[in-house]
Design goal:
The chain is an alpha/beta fold. The protein has 14 helices and 19 strands. The radius of gyration is 21 Å and the shape is globular.
Length: about 375
């Protein structure tokens, strides 16, 4: 079988690797003209690590990142709202609560592909199905034809927009900055992934290798707000100056060129991922807000499940039908839960925040564990 993958992100590369392991002839077409070590940190839960293990790359990924022992949420004064020890789940489901620089994960995946798999500077412009084949036309006027096309081209997928023009990303109500910096000497717990919920916004901090820190900031704002887009690390540090001192110190120490800014959006759950010989995968199919840390995780799951379906079914049509059946409900639940968690975490009203924090403190740990176990029980 010959397969085309549109998009060379984590989902696209995982899928290329998965399909090559079935013997398929795979080409990934990526719009970017160069492969650069871009991006910030990324968290991978046990379900993603199980997927990477099935693809045969988990050990190399683990060598490039850090496994943490807890997920902790703090209030604006540094008091603990929630402190969940992830080690028991790691013993049950494998490596969990793992952080790595996105560029390192991308590099590991890229090195496992056959030489020449990824073609750069190839922006998809049009897709057409005819006579049991899929043809792609690129912006440079070249074309490619295959038996199967996988759209892994992100939340703003051109392929999805052509198939479902009415389905557009929906803004979540808050905008986000992500960055990686050398620890400037801030006193942080390097064994945990931490998030601080404050009325002026939300700040996450996770340690990487080599004394590096991955952080993110989410602030309620109008969509495409030019003022927010122009905020500098110093201005972000000033906004959070009243929080525990490690937070403004880390934000302020980040180089401006090390920051990525974007509005947070997701897709309302779709009812269909497969359109003939075209398959939507990753954010193109089920973009979610980052509040559960499941965006890349679900894309990795997609790749492994698609491979399994192709290996288990006797025809391409039945394999794609099975893929869609296994992925629709699970990814829709992630989208709904993640959006709800983000809405609650972004509350600004002081009274509501105090009530929320109290309820989270009173929440039994088995409730959190049950939700995580649902995520970690993969079907592959």
């Amino acid at each position: 079988m010959k397969a085309i993958i549109i998009g060379g992100g984590i989902g696209g590369l995982c899928t290329a690797l998965a399909l090559q392991q079935t013997g398929a002839d795979v080409t990934v077409y990526e719009a970017a003209p160069h492969i650069k070590p871009v991006g910030a940190g990324i968290g991978l839960a046990a379900n993603a690590m199980q997927g990477l293990a099935r693809l045969g790359v988990a050990e190399e990924v683990v060598a490039r990142g850090r496994q943490l022992k807890a997920l902790t949420i703090f209030d604006e004064k540094g008091g603990i709202i929630s402190d969940f020890d992830t080690r028991p789940l790691s013993k049950k489901y494998g490596i969990n609560n793992f952080v790595i620089h996105r560029a390192d994960l991308h590099e590991v995946l890229y090195r496992h592909l056959k030489p020449g798999t990824v073609q750069l500077g190839k922006r998809c412009q049009q897709v057409r199905q005819q006579d049991g084949q899929v043809q792609v036309t690129f912006a440079d006027a070249t074309t490619a034809t295959a038996d199967l096309l996988i759209a892994a081209d992100g939340i703003n997928s051109l392929v999805r927009q052509a198939l479902l023009p009415q389905r557009r990303p929906r803004y979540a109500g808050y905008t986000c900055w992500r960055g990686v910096t050398e620890n400037p000497g801030a006193a942080i717990n390097t064994a945990i992934s931490a998030e601080t919920w404050a009325p002026q916004g939300r700040v996450g901090i996770a340690p990487l290798q080599d004394n590096k820190i991955y952080w993110y900031v989410c602030i309620n704002a109008p969509e495409r707000d030019p003022h927010m887009q122009q905020l500098t690390p110093t201005q972000l540090a000033e906004r959070f100056a009243t929080l525990p001192p490690a937070i403004p110190a880390i934000l302020g120490a980040t180089k401006p060129e090390e920051i990525i800014w974007n509005d947070i959006a997701d897709l309302e759950p779709l009812k269909q991922f497969v359109f003939g010989r075209i398959v939507l995968l990753g954010d193109a199919a089920h973009a979610t807000t980052p509040n559960m840390g499941q965006g890349a995780c679900q894309a990795i799951e997609d790749a492994v499940v698609l491979r399994n379906c192709l290996q288990q079914q006797t025809s391409l049509a039945s394999a794609l039908q099975q893929y869609e059946k296994r992925r629709l409900a699970r990814t829709a639940k992630v989208i709904r839960l993640s959006r709800l968690l983000g809405e609650v975490a972004q509350w600004q009203n002081p009274v509501l925040c105090r009530v929320r924090n109290l309820l989270f403190r009173l929440m039994p740990k088995f409730s959190t564990q049950s939700q995580m176990e649902w995520l970690y029980r993969v079907d592959f």
